[in-house]
Request: fold
Amino acid sequence: MTPRQIQILKSIVEEYTQTAEAVGSDVLEKKYSLGVSPATIRNEMAALTAGGYLKQPHTSAGRI
Reply:
């Protein structure tokens, strides 16, 4: 796992524990100042999902 993926995963866990809702790339980009575009965040989230670190309940949903 890359340092960027770790940072994104930590942000997702933090946001999910605060809201108990699936987390989207737009929320992460606006709230956590990750320094990358929402598209890059989505790509990293897809890699984290493929690696089994995240789940995506629906195709258009955020991840948990």
Q: What stands out?
A: The chain has three helices and no strands. The CA atoms of residues 25 and 38 lie 5 Å apart.
